[in-house]
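User: Structure with zinc ion, C-alpha cells only please.
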Amino acid sequence: MAVSATWSLADLKSVIAQHWGYRTLRPLQEEAMRAVLDGRDSLVVLPTGGGKSLCYQAPAVLRGDVTVVVSPLISLMKDQVDRLRSCGIGAVALNSTLSTDEYHDATQALTSGEARLLFVSPERLARPGCQRLLQRLDVRTFAIDEAHCISHWGHDFRPDYRQLNRLREFFPNASVHGYTATATERVRRDIVAQLGFKDPEVHVGNFDRPNLTYRVQRRGDLMKQVRDVLDRHRGEAGILYCITRKDVDELAATLEKRGLKVRAYHAGLNDDLRRGAQEAFMSEECDLIVATVAFGMGIDRSNIRFVLHRGMPKSLEHYQQEAGRAGRDGLEAECVLLYDEEDVELWHYILDKAGERGGVPEGVRANAERQLGEMLRYCRGTACRHRALVQYFGQEYTAPSCGACDLCLGDARPIADSVTLAQKILSCVARVKEGFGAAHVADVLLGTPTDEVQTAGHDSLSTFGLLRGHDGLLVLDWVGQLLAQGLLGQRGAGEPALCLTAASWEVMRGVRSARLIEPANPPKVKASRAAAAAWKDVDRELFEGLRQVRQKLARERGLAPDVILSDLALRELARVKPRTVEEMKRVYGMGQVKVRDFGAAFLEAIRTFSPP
Ligand code: ADP
Ligand code: ZN
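Assistant:
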C-alpha cells in the first residue's frame, strides 16, 4: 500500500512550514515520516528533544485520515493536544476525564474529519467500545509514544502497555510506529517483538545532545555549588534532583529561606501538592523544582535551562533520562552532577532494602551493581563527557573535543606529569602489599601517621609522605580516576583493598600512559559554543519582554507558555525583530496560526521594547 506515491517531500515540508513554522528537518525526521506515509511499521529512536512527535504528526495532517497516538499519561496527552491545536491542527484525547458531552464532541470531530489525531491510553485502546470506534473510522496508522514502556527491561515499564501486543490482531491492515528515546538494544528488540512489527524500518539517531553542557563535581560545599549553578541561570527554569525525599525537603527549605521560589516534589507528598508543583512548573509560575526521580515522565516543558543532580543517579541510563530533560527546545542548557562515593553506599543500601522485601531478583541485582559501577566510572572520568556518554550507549564520537563539558572547557586541567604521579600512587599500593583500601593508601601518601598507618608500620615505607602537602580529597580523586581507567583494581567487599592490574604494571614500567586531572584554580566556567551561538544577536531585554507577553497570553488561555511559543521562536523574534506580519511569517517557528493568533501581541511588544 504505497500511499506516499501521492505525496512528495515538498508537500511534507510545506505542511510543516505552514503549521509549525519550521523550515528545516532534524536528523531522521524525513525517513521517519516517509515510513508513516508508506504504511511501513517502524521504530524510531531519537534522543529527548530530537523531535519525535513531528514524525507522526506531520504525516497525519497530510494524510487526512485519523492517526491514533498511544500515550502513557493523561497530562502528556493534554499537552500534545494543546500544542497541536495552537498550530491549527485538530486533535482530541479520549480519556476518563471527559464528560459525556465532551466525549460526544470528540467522536464527532473524529468522524467529521476535523480531528486528525486521536490520543488514547493503552487501557482505553483495549476496550471493545474504543476498538469499534477505530474500526468505524478505518484507522490505518498507530503511533506508540514512549514505546519503551512496553519492555520490562526499560526504566518505565508499564504493564498496561503489554495489551498493545494484540493491536495487530484487531487492526491487521494498519501500520504501527514506535517512538522512544531509550537507547539500549535489548529494549529495542523487545519493542519490535512485543508490537509484532512486520519487517520494520528501524531508525536510530545520534545520541549526543550537543546543546547540553555536562559538568561533574565532587560534592563539597554543597550550598556554594548549588548557588553557583543558580547564579548562572537566574530567572531560568531548572530541576534539582535528589536521591532521597529527605534531601528534597532539606534543599527546598534552604533555597526557600534564601528567598527563592521553589517547589518540592516526591512520592511522599500528597497528590494535591504534587499536582500543584507540577502545574506551577509547567505554567512557568515557578521555575525551580527540587525533586526525586518521581518527577519525570509527565514533564514536557521544553525550556528547562539546567538540571542539577545533588547526588549520583543509579545508572547512566537514568542520568541520560533525567539530565536529558534540559534543553528540549534545542537551545543551550547545563547539566551539573554532584557526586560522592557515599552515594554508591546509599544505592547499595536502597538495593539491599528492596532485596529484603523480595523485590529484586538475583540477575537484576547484578545488573544494578554493574550499572552503578559504570555511573561511578563516568563521574571519575578524565576525558570528554559527551564522548563517554555516547560511547556508553554504543555509538562513536569522532570530534576531538566537544566544547561543552567541564573537561573540554577547562574547569579541570590535566596534570602535566600525570604518569609520574600515577607511578607514585601505584607504587604505594605495591608497598602496602595490595592489602589496604583507598583511604589508607591516601594517608600513607600524604604522610599522615594515623594509628592504622603506624600499626602496619607504613610510616617507614619509602612512599610515606610522597604526596605530602596535597589536598586529601584530591588524592582520593586521583585514586578514583586510576580505577576508572582500569589502571588500578579493587578486591574484597566492604572497604575493598586496592590492587594492581596488568595495566598498573605497564604504567609503572613507563610503557603506558595515564591521565589525571585537578580542578583549575580559580575554576573557569566558560560558556559552551552552543550558548554563545544561541544568544548571538539576540536582544536579551526584548526576549525578557516577549517572555512576559507570552506568559500573559498563556494565562488568559489556560495553556502552558511554551505551547504558545517555544523559547527558540521567542529568541528568533528578539533577534530578527520583525515589524510587520509579513516579516513575522518568515521567522523560524512562526506557523500561520501562531502569527494569526498571537502576531499582533508580539509585534506590539517588539515596538514597545525596541522602537525602530
Ligand atoms: P521528543 O519527543 O523527541 O523529545 P519533541 O517532539 O517534543 O521531542 O520535540 C522537541 C522540540 O523540538 C519541540 O519544541 C518541537 O516543536 C521542536 N522541533 C521538532 N522538530 C523540529 C524542527 N524540524 N525544527 C525545529 N524545531 C523542531
Ligand atoms: Zn567534552
